[in-house]
Amino acid sequence: MIKVCLMNSKEKKELKSMMIEEFGSAINGVLYLGSKGKVFLGTKWSMLIDLKSVNAEGVGVYIGRINPDGFRPTIEGVQLLRPAKNVFELSKEQVWDWLRGYPVTLDTKYEGYCALSYNGELLGPGKISRGKLWNYVPKERRIKRLIR
Fold first, then answer.
1. What are phi and psi of 69, to 5 degrees?
2. From its phi and psi, is residue 24 left (phi > 0), alpha (psi between -120 and 50) or beta?
3. End-to-end alpha-carbon separation of the chain, Å?
4. Which of 25-44 are b and which e, b meaning 16 or more Cβ less than 10 Å from the residue's Cβ?
5. 75-120, pLDDT tens digit by residue?
6. Helix H segments across 53-116?
7. Is 25 strand, coil or helix?
8. Disulfide engineering: 26 pairs with which of 6, 19, 80, 101, CB 3.0-4.6 Å?
9. How many helices (H) does the chain have, and how many strands (E)?
10. How far apart are CA 16 and CA 10, in angstroms?
């Protein structure tokens, strides 16, 4: 059973328009579509893999997921995307709450997926809904406690 396939030009065009609409930039390269709308970025060499002969969940770097409400990037996806819009600068306290997986209150009317930064450095993705920033960092990548 094939779980990942090379995106055709129509799918790539739709994904890039979603990225540009939400983040003001897009990721170029060899894009693959996996199960549950997962998007992977490969290299030209990854195109040499015979996907019909392997049972692969993904090829390359997992950069995000296509959801009905837009493109939700991963941490790596945000860093590769280098977004030009919908980037929210967090305070030190907000970053700490976000890294631990807690929702953060933001003073914005924007609703949807966004990128987060601290001191100009991109941290990762989030989703803003009704003034709350929801964390999409997997639990195993969250920070439990601060060592001083």
1. -100, 10
2. left
3. 49
4. ebbebbbbbbeeebbbbbee
5. 999 999 999 999 999 999 999 888 888 889 999 999 999 999 999 9
6. 75-81, 92-100
7. coil
8. 19
9. 3, 10
10. 10
